[in-house]
Amino acid sequence: MKRIATLLLASAALPGAQFRAGVGRVDITPQESIWLSGYAARTKPSQGVATRLWAKALALEDGKSRTVIVTTDLIGLPRVITDVVSARVQKQYGLDRARLLFNSSHTHTGPVVRPNLILMYDLDAEQQQRVNRYADRLTEDLVTVIGAALGDLAPARLSYGQGQAGFAVNRRQPDKGGIRIGVNPQGPVDHSVPVLKVSAPDGKLRAVLFGYACHNTTLTAEHLQISGDYAAWAQSAIEQANPGSTALFLQLCGGDQNPHPRSKFELAEQHGRTLGSEVLRVLETKLEPVNPPVRAAYKLTQLEFAPHSREQFEKDLADKNVWVVRRAKDMLRHYDAGTPIRRTPYPVQAIRLGNQVTLLALGGEVVIDYALRAKREYGGKQHLIVAGYSNDVMCYIPSLRVLKEGGYEAVTSMIYYGQPGPFNEQVEELVFDAVRDVMARIGLKKR
């Protein structure tokens, strides 16, 4: 007891030590061969495991409230799962929805998580059962990992730094008057690597939350081993260098960013080592202390699709593209039921750590323009981390620029996501209306 009291007094006297922090981790690797998500070109389920997949949680307590950030080595978590988990966690632990954040690494060598990319696959009955079993187990695992982090709370110091990694490249390549997925070195990128360090009062590393804006698509469609792609190797490198620590990866606004080069297994390891080494370098520099309180806000807004009609989907029934036909049939079912899809719910969340760091979490596959704009409007002395793939992944979220240019992120991807078509031109402003709302509620104003 005397030792515990001494530690508490010591932690209270140190900058950034007024927190309590806890970490949890659960292995969410599929237990059977399962269809992998992210590539329509695949024709068979997974074959073996290259890296384990993890759900990890970081819990923070500032003396008045508790907040939990959950990261997962998955393509994306849909609201049909995060809403259920959030409701259970609120009932079991009293955690308000605004104080629970879910983020996915967007690995393309992880399992299908229905209804994410719902029209991309044509699963037989057995594969559908496996996907359903995985979703049921995943829901339980997420509740478990949150409980584990909350049960691990202990005095901690938080500090922040930032590095750089250069393997992400804009993939929207102009081609014959249009846009294709390729390599565009002149396109916008954000190579920043935010690093939040969580230490015990004695300085020992307990956890590190870090992020990067880049698709986890080093491993392309021909790769069938389960893995977390470069993010898995980055987390592993950090944990191996700091035994007993937990590294949590946040996918930032990587919707139009790809690793470069890619398509070889060793490149996933190489990019992971590059990112992990940069995080380790930052951890050894003089970091900025982060102090309480933790403020949080969450908003579920609505994004509007461009106008569409029954006639256009009836015409699509004759298309030679099987995915266009699937989407047409699905949309016509909604028309028949009198419920054509005109909009989609969209989650926006902000978590502010003292006056030092704010994490803005956006749903969907968010393109880099959103991060760059948010940093222009809310950056400065306040370090701003802008994550995509958070709380729900319902489709790509193009900026107005990307929407007008067209291409995969703006138009074609909506087919696989089972959405009726592109958004209307209000999409970016509707997102930033919600951003302004949550930022105001955590006390952060535009510059």
Topology:
Blueprint: H1 2-13, E1 19-27, E2 54-61, E3 66-72, H2 79-93, E4 100-104, H3 125-150, E5 154-164, E6 168-170, E7 172-175, E8 178-181, E9 192-199, E10 205-212, H4 229-241, E11 246-251, E12 257-259, H5 265-283, E13 288-290, E14 294-304, H6 310-316, H7 322-336, E15 343-353, E16 357-362, E17 365-366, H8 368-378, E18 383-387, E19 396-397, H9 400-405, H10 408-416, H11 427-441
Parallel strand pairs: 3-4, 10-11, 16-18, 17-19
Antiparallel strand pairs: 1-2, 1-5, 2-3, 5-9, 5-13, 6-12, 7-8, 9-10, 14-15, 15-16
Short description, anyone?
The protein is an alpha+beta fold and 447 residues long. It contains 11 helices and 19 strands. Helices cover 33% and strands 26% of the residues.
Structure keywords:
447 residues, globular, 2 domains, alpha+beta, nine-stranded mixed beta sheet, disordered N terminus, four-stranded mixed beta sheet
What integer value in Å does the Rg equal? 21 Å
Please give the share of residues in helix: 25-40%
Give the SSE order as H and E letters.
Answer: HEEEHEHEEEEEEHEEHEEHHEEEHEEHHH
Number of helices: 11
Content-based structural category:
alpha+beta
Number of strands: 19
- How many domains comprise the coordinates? 2
User: Averaged pLDDT, please?
Assistant: 95
Shape call: globular
Euclidean distance between termini CA atoms:
48 Å
The biggest beta sheet reads: 9 strands, mixed
Beta content comes to 25-35%
The parts where pLDDT drops under 50 for at least 5 residues are 1-16
